[in-house]
Amino acid sequence: MDIKHMQKEVDEWISQFQEGYWQPSNQMVKLIEEVGELAREINHYYGQKPKKISEPSGDIALELGDILFVIACLANTLNIDLTEAFIRVMEKYKTRDKNRWTPIKNV
């Protein structure tokens, strides 16, 4: 699924409820909450804080999916095309950072 379809599917799902989208500030808080949940899972898998035996195992991919969902909600609320935003940001990185990193040499 591409980003445009992801945004459309999120919009179709949210549009079936009278409450609709949350205010952007509430969505931002939700995004921070989801990033915190991802950080917790990363810390459990790769950091120095293993889960307690009583804690259920988490799912990093699902946490990333939650973040994508909230980002799509925020973008839809603000009428931002994430495909276009991504194209613009990649151009920024390709221009600004083109000589910043050591390229892999072809063998």
CATH architecture: Orthogonal Bundle
Q: Helical content, roughly?
A: 55-70%
- Weakly predicted, low-confidence segments: none
What's the number of helices?
4
- The overall average pLDDT, rounded, is 94
Helix/strand order? HHHH
Q: How large is the share of residues in beta strands?
A: under 5%
Query: Mind summarizing the main beta sheet?
Result: none
> What is the alpha-carbon Rg in Å?
18 Å
Shape: flat
Count of domains? 1
Compute the separation of the termini in Å: 34 Å
- Summing up helix and strand content along with how strands pair, one would put the structural category as mainly alpha
CATH C-level label: Mainly Alpha
Count of extended strands: 0
CATH superfamily: MazG-like
Instruction: Briefly note the CATH topology name.
Output: Helix Hairpins
Summary tags:
single chain, 107 residues, mainly alpha, Helix Hairpins, 4 helices, 64% helix
Structure description:
This protein has 107 residues and is mainly alpha-helical. It has a single domain (3-96), classed as Orthogonal Bundle (Helix Hairpins), CATH 1.10.287.1080. The protein is 64% helix and 0% strand. The longest helix is centred in the first third of the chain and has 23 residues, at 24-46.
At a glance:
This protein has 107 residues and is mostly helical. It has helices at 3-14, 24-46, 60-77, 82-96.
